[in-house]
Amino acid sequence: MRQIEHTERSPSPPMVAMPAVPAPPHRLLALCGEVGLRRLVHRHMTRLRLTPLLASHDGPECFACVTERVGDFVIESCGGPLYWSQHHSPHRGVSAGAGWPVLLDEIGREIWLVQLWHSLDDVGLPDALRADVWRWAEPLSLHLLVPRARQTGVRRYPFERVRSWFTTPSA
């Protein structure tokens, strides 16, 4: 009788629990309007298009469609019309692979966040509104991570710390 060797695989590291994504304050929509939020999304997506995250996506039609879809999500999240839910199952929520244009690893997430920060500069968002966007988008970015990136401790980027990286100290 032949003995079967049993090789045990080491289990995959457990998935790190993702923080809840807080709802962004509705004042973002009230103060920026749909046009302002879409402008921010368009600027962020344009910046991402110059990075490896979106550089390989097909043509301007795809870019416009994806940008509109992300804008729909942002507007609805800020208390606007249900543009996103009308076209996407509300049960899919926000997670990697749920209709999002990119799935991020930890380096991709850093690129995504840095480009968001610069986009906030580009559109001239005041500091208080910038903090509102960041405190919503930073935890949201964790939900865009591919599953393997969730198996290790994820780095958090609080608004105050990131602002200090991009602020020139007074002389």
From TrEMBL:
InterPro entries: Globin-like_sf (IPR009050), Globin/Proto (IPR012292). It comes from the Bacteria. Signal peptide: none annotated. GO terms for molecular function: heme binding; oxygen binding. This is Oxygen-binding protein.
